[in-house]
Write a structure and sequence with these properties.
homodimer; alpha+beta; about 25% strand
């Protein structure tokens, strides 16, 4: 691979067309991103936590739980502070330059465990399979509502990720519009397909496996790696090997493998960086187009180790003070135990 | 204006095509965004600060100062920790799916005052005019370098804005590529012009003045207002009334008016929210196309009052827990003294 040894590099993220400045010459070593956490005791059940067992009446009426009877392991409820309301019509109003759509949609909380004091990394593979199965069920379900145009599943872990609730949970938001970012990505995938007849995600995956330098983990159905143009330190992608437009099409066997892969990846972050704050997102199209040749879902993990500033705001470009190849090597070496 | 009284609203930012969720039903009152600052004494000169007078040798060799001789009021130096290097060739390497451009460009620091313990809001109008004149000079100058494709001027104020240096300063970064975000905005402006023969920024400005509800300040040459689809609480735009593609074309009279407008706007933020952290960006094209009918520069101010989370990361959409019309009314009412 060609690099500029003593110079920053601008690398192109082909999925988004965004350039990232890799600050090669003054990059930190991966271990320098390690957090310094004050260890303090957190109990398994917290009386004031709305997601802890015994407080089920503090959430809006439950949507589902696993198992259906008895003590639950995973529980889904509407978000009490919903960004979009479940009831109401999708109304559009155009008034000159003002375009308005009523804020209807879905906003659900997926409580990943009955235990307050664990992260997803600390759950067993079977417990994570439960969570992923619930993701799939709910993701498929929200698209049955014709008012929902797009949906994302995401997780906020830790204060810097934008959450104040420690109890492990994810969220699902179904929006009445397709966000610009999603449209741009679809457009890029389509352009690549126009030129090559190939799926861009499949092509990147083949290229990464061949190159090998940025791979963290290669399991039966998924490959975890640091993107060539990682937008920030420890930015990580998990790509499914099988071409599929939507997360809704994940198979049971893939769920089992993903649960293991995700546990390993998040555990490496946990042990390697001492429980960093992070977000992850399932970037997926809805289950509309079973046979799309160019759409391909994946997971993106973004540890929140730095604060973005005016440059990112004003340009949409990111600065990454780490070298993707070094971060991947570090992550490969982290012992998970 | 049509609104949904008890429902969130999705509003479209026409400059970017991004939808924002205005959380109408559970919006905070503008005054609830007030910070609680611990007041502590900060001296006018700090020995360890690289931007304070007496420490001029701690920065790379000076690019310019105002005035040219004697005690300086404004000083420009290369950024010691430059994101892009000033020396070197713009080289592009394509290797399969990997696209690389050498990280050359410009990264300058504009020290806005010799005083360590002031914000831009506390400077006099004439002092801010100095800063803006230096912006114009440097912005024009960096584009003389044929390796520079695009440039942004921005300011980080306070820890949450991504800076650790308190001494008032701005930055100028000239990049060897045009960022995607900028290209998207140009494309939107062009499409609007295709359909109407009009500049989108001019059209929005006329509309906002007519509507009036979101206006904060209307001075001779600039209008300050809360965008209809403000991406977060207190997000503010300052639009020049005269159509001009580039900040490089600002006149002396406009600089004087902008200095006053900016001082008033930032002072209202300072007194209204107790010195919130913020970024601002001069969104401008380079001085390439003097006669563009559809490009129009402006300033965007984004107070950093909340932490973005997985939803913003995964969708590019923002949630705004304030109502733009209420924020504008609040800002109009803030006494500056």
């Amino acid at each position: 691979m060609v690099t500029f040894a003593k110079m920053p590099e601008l690398r192109l993220n082909l999925l988004t067309r965004e350039w990232v400045i890799i600050q090669t010459e003054r990059a930190k070593k991966p271990e320098e991103f390690r957090q310094r956490r004050e260890k303090r005791y957190v109990p398994e059940v917290v009386e004031s936590c709305p997601f802890c067992p015994g407080n089920e009446n503090k959430t809006p009426p439950e949507i589902m739980r696993l198992p259906a009877d008895g003590k639950w392991r995973v529980r889904v409820t509407p978000n009490k502070f919903a960004a979009l309301l479940a009831e109401g019509e999708r109304v559009r109003i155009n008034e000159g330059l003002k375009h308005l759509v009523s804020g209807i949609g879905k906003h659900e909380v997926i409580i990943e465990s009955a235990k307050h004091n664990v992260g997803l990394a600390q759950l067993g593979v079977e417990e994570i399979m439960d969570v992923l199965n619930v993701y799939k069920l709910r993701f498929t379900e929200v698209f049955k509502d014709p008012r929902v145009e797009h949906a994302i599943i995401f997780k906020n872990h830790g204060l810097a990720s934008g959450t104040t609730i420690q109890h492990p949970h994810s969220q699902l938001i179904g929006t009445p519009v397709t966000p610009l970012q999603v449209r741009n990505r679809m457009d890029e995938a389509m352009r690549y397909f126009d030129n090559t007849g190939d799926c861009l995600v499949c092509a990147i995956l083949r290229d990464e496996i061949k190159d090998g330098k940025r791979i963290i983990l290669d399991t039966k159905h998924f490959v975890t790696f640091i993107p060539y143009a990682a937008l920030s330190a420890f930015h990580t992608w998990i790509f499914p090997k099988r071409h599929a437009a939507s997360f809704a099409f994940i198979t049971d066997e893939e769920i089992e493998d993903l649960a293991y892969n995700l546990k390993m990846t998040l555990s490496k972050l946990y042990f390697g960086l001492d429980d960093p704050d992070f977000n992850y997102v399932v970037r997926s199209n809805g289950p509309f187009r079973f046979r799309s040749e160019y759409l391909h879902w994946y997971i993106s993990i973004v540890p929140r180790l730095i604060q973005t500033a005016g440059f990112e705001l004003g340009s949409g470009m990111y600065m990454n003070a780490s070298i993707p190849e070094e971060v991947a090597a570090f992550m490969r070496g982290v012992k998970v135990s």
